[in-house]
Amino acid sequence: MKKVLSAVAVIASMLSFSAIAAHEVKVGDLKLHNPNARATVPSQKMSGGFLKIENTGTADKLVSASSPVSKSMELHTMSMEGNVMKMREVKAIDLPAKGVVELKPGGLHLMFIDLNKQLKAGDVVPIKLKFEKAGEVEVKFHVMDNKPPAHGQPGHDHSKHH
Ligand SMILES: [Cu+2]
Q1: What is the Cα–Cα distance from 134 to 53, expressed in whole angstroms?
Q2: Domains of the chain: which residue ranges?
């Protein structure tokens, strides 16, 4: 009986872990929402990772990221310089006290440098994030297709995306 119970407990904890991993991960005072990465084409060596970081405590910083699928990862920001979108590396991403910072396309993001495999929609890629105060946490990023929605399809309605 004891064996059955512990097996049930293991399965239950696995289920709840994967349910949490898909949507929200907590580390210290930080809540990490919707971690996702961009799908790539076979020859592509770089890609972006995105998530929303909610800080319920005092100021912290995201200081580094790493993943087994790429040689390294960098923290990047994107901004307009004249008419050109430019990407540059930042040393850390500030997470103000009681604030929310969103890493998203066109802004702050995690950058996979020198991917060793193609990222396909539906894949789950682990990324280890290191925070100055909250410490390290491995987060499962869901790979999403970034193809623009097919236009001219019957019933396609942009208003529903927002
Ligand atoms: Cu970048």
Answers
A1: 12
A2: 25-146
pTM: 0.76
**CA 87 to ligand 1 center in whole angstroms:** 5
Contact 51, 141 (CB under 8 A): yes
Q: What is the whole-number distance in angstroms between the Cα of residue 5 and the centre of ligand 1?
A: 48
Rg (CA), the chain: 18
Task: Dihedral sign for Cα 88, 61, 141, 160, please.
Answer: negative
Whether domain 25-146 has CATH 2.60.40.1890: yes
For residue 159, the CA-to-ligand 1 centroid distance in Å is 29
Beta strands in 10-69, from DSSP E residues, in sequence order? 24-27, 30-38, 46-55, 60-66
Q: How far does residue 92's CA lie from ligand 1's centre (Å)?
A: 14
Per-residue pLDDT of the chain in tens (162 residues, 90 and over written 9): 555 555 555 555 555 444 444 568 999 999 999 999 999 999 999 999 999 999 999 999 999 999 999 999 999 999 888 999 899 999 999 999 999 999 999 999 999 999 999 999 999 999 999 999 999 999 999 999 876 555 444 444 444 443
